[in-house]
Design brief:
The complex is a heterodimer of chains A (250) and B (304). Chain A has 250 residues and is an alpha+beta fold. Chain A has helices at residues 2-11, 107-110, 113-119, 123-126, 137-150, 210-221, 223-249, and strands at 19-25, 29-32, 39-49, 59-66, 69-80, 83-96, 99-103, 154-157, 162-164, 168-175, 182-192, 195-208. Chain A is built from seven helices and twelve strands. In chain A, β11 (182-192) and β12 form a beta hairpin. Chain A starts with a helix and ends with a helix. The longest helix of chain B is centred in the middle third of the chain and has 32 residues, at 110-141. The chains are: A alpha+beta (250), B mainly alpha (304).
């Protein structure tokens, strides 16, 4: 009950918001087809003001895009009798499959640490590890970030949001080809001197379509039929190649 | 050309996959091995999730083995009777292997065990075959008559059966035992087991090399077909798009491989297979011994 109340409170617009975000997306759905090679999403918007703001603080925009969260296990190798084996592992309760943070400037300047704590904006904040007290869990989370960043799945794009006359802004986020299906939570934070003054949240749906969708559904819903179909294709291909080669030799 | 794989959920180059399938297919047709022990590590390397790689590879082996077996059937180099006997053992062994695999998984460290299995078996089999075929080549060069078919304990067992194609009259117990042990290993290591089966047929059962390849392929079709169905129904990890790309290359490769195989001498065939097995063994051993560049890795706990 308390959690529900808390989430309701969070959903309410921040009190006395003198400035608000108005947003547009180049697309709010990404279709994964057989020839999907990744996708660019243009996020653009404006800062709406009811009254002119006489605020000396600098205005910044932070855009985050997060893929569906899943638990992951991170393992560490160590030397056991001269052989490299997995010696330790840590369960990370939730880690987004994709995460991008784009900002107008360096993250530590545009975002106060306390605000990061509340809204979980930076990558380490977006990942929650089980048993935070355990010695060395930090090393595992860092390793997860390092590996996923190397694969282009975690991106920190400082300065990638362009803001024009403190009003119009736009950012381009590149989604890689190895995307997981699901809703991609997109958040836009408006900050003044590192403090969040407005939040806008939307979702980008990433879905398999056409043949990809059909095969995926079949594999999960009618798995025996799918398995038999795989075997039939394999046998047919084997026979086909054999027959073709015999015809060629004649 | 990039293709998005619906089950593996990664985007890969279609031509690269067809090419890989082709190379492994040639080896499959030549040596009667399914090629899983080569292809599975290659698929890991290009970024296919391990569970999908193992399951899909089984499906691809069905195709290339079937293509190869048809070619061998026309040459009458398949001992169907021996194949069925081995298969009975193989299926019993595979079922036992799955139970053993799940038990080891509950103990942890199954990964390391699988790798050690690979290194030990590839090393021992490759080494023995290499030495034996070198000796055979030297013997044939000095033109001494090869001494074959010594009377061993294998020939004094009961339940004798005639295997006409192989020219053998032996007890069914050794082939069943060979089938069971290969089945167990195949289930644990996630391969068809051809690279263990072929030497076992040559050295333990004394079958002629030419018949061994076709018979091994015949047996592999059923074992990997069974594995494919098992993976498809329990883990949903068979990626049909990936399988099609691999098997287009694979079936063509298998036809070419079979033709190359018939032109080579038995000793040459064995020494080449031994060299390849040792090469893979060396690579896996190095992975275990050398310091890895990244000490950490991610294992997805969702799904499989």
């Amino acid at each position: 009950m308390r959690a529900l109340l808390l989430s309701l409170l969070l959903l309410l617009p921040l009190p006395a918001a003198a400035e608000q975000v108005v947003l547009g997306l180049s697309r709010d759905e990404v279709a994964i087809t057989a020839t999907f090679e990744g996708s660019d999403i243009l996020i653009f918007g404006a800062v709406k003001r009811e009254v002119p703001v006489i605020d000396p603080g600098s205005l910044d925009v932070i855009v985050t895009v997060a893929g569906p969260s899943l638990p992951v296990t991170v393992r560490r190798k160590g030397r056991v009798m001269g052989i490299w084996a997995n010696v330790a592992s840590a369960e990370i309760t939730t880690a987004p499959s994709f995460y991008a943070v784009a900002t107008t400037g360096p993250l530590d300047e545009v975002l106060a640490a306390s605000e990061d704590l509340t809204h979980s904006i930076t990558i380490p904040r977006a990942i929650r590890a089980l048993g935070g007290g355990i010695e060395g869990t930090r090393a595992f989370t860092q390793a997860l970030i390092r590996i996923r960043a190397g694969a282009g799945l975690y991106q920190v794009l400082e300065g990638a949001v362009h803001i024009d006359q403190d009003t119009l802004f736009n950012a381009r986020i590149t989604l890689p080809a190895n995307l997981t299906e699901g809703d991609y939570r997109t958040r836009i934070f408006l900050t003044r001197d590192g403090r969040v003054v407005d939040i806008y949240e939307t979702r980008i749906g990433v879905k398999k379509v056409g043949l990809e969708r059909w095969l995926y559904n079949m594999a999960h819903e009618r798995s025996l039929l799918y398995g038999l179909m795989s075997l039939a294709i394999a046998i047919a291909a084997g026979w086909g190649a054999s027959a073709a080669f015999r015809a060629l030799q004649r | 050309m990039q293709i998005y794989l619906p089950i593996a959920e990664v985007s890969v180059d279609a031509f690269l996959l067809v090419g890989l399938g082709g190379i492994v297919g040639v080896l499959s047709g030549m040596f009667g091995v399914g090629g899983g022990f080569l292809m599975t590590p290659l698929l890991f390397f290009i970024g296919i999730p391990p569970a999908v790689a193992v399951a899909t590879e089984a499906n691809q082996i069905v195709a290339s083995s079937f293509s190869g077996v048809l070619a061998h059937l026309r040459r009458k180099t398949v001992d169907l009777r021996m194949g069925v006997v081995l298969l009975i053992g193989g299926l019993i062994g595979a079922a036992m292997g799955v139970v053993l695999f799940n038990y080891l998984k509950s103990l942890g460290q199954v990964d390391l065990l699988v790798r050690l299995c690979y290194v030990v078996f590839l090393g021992v089999i490759g080494g023995l075959m290499f030495i034996e075929s070198l000796r055979a080549m030297r013997r044939s060069r000095s033109a001494a008559p090869p001494q074959r078919r010594r009377h061993t304990w294998v020939h004094s067992l009961p339940f004798k059966m005639k295997f006409r194609v192989s020219g053998l009259y032996i007890s069914v117990i050794p082939p069943i035992l060979v089938g069971i042990s290969v089945g167990v290993l195949a289930a644990i290591m996630g391969v068809g087991g051809g690279f263990i089966m072929v030497p076992a047929m040559i050295y333990l059962l004394g079958m002629p090399t030419k018949v061994v390849v076709g018979t091994s392929l015949f047996q592999i079709i059923f074992v990997t077909g069974f594995t494919t169905l098992l993976h498809a129904t329990t883990n949903q990890t068979v990626d049909i798009v990936l399988a099609v790309l691999l098997l287009v290359g694979g079936v063509i490769g298998a036809q070419i491989g079979t033709r190359i195989g018939t032109k080579l001498k038995a000793e040459q065939l064995r020494i080449l297979l031994a060299g390849m097995v040792l090469l893979v063994c060396g690579k896996l051993a190095l992975d275990l011994l050398l310091t890895p560049t990244e000490l950490y890795d991610i294992a997805s706990t969702a799904g499989h």
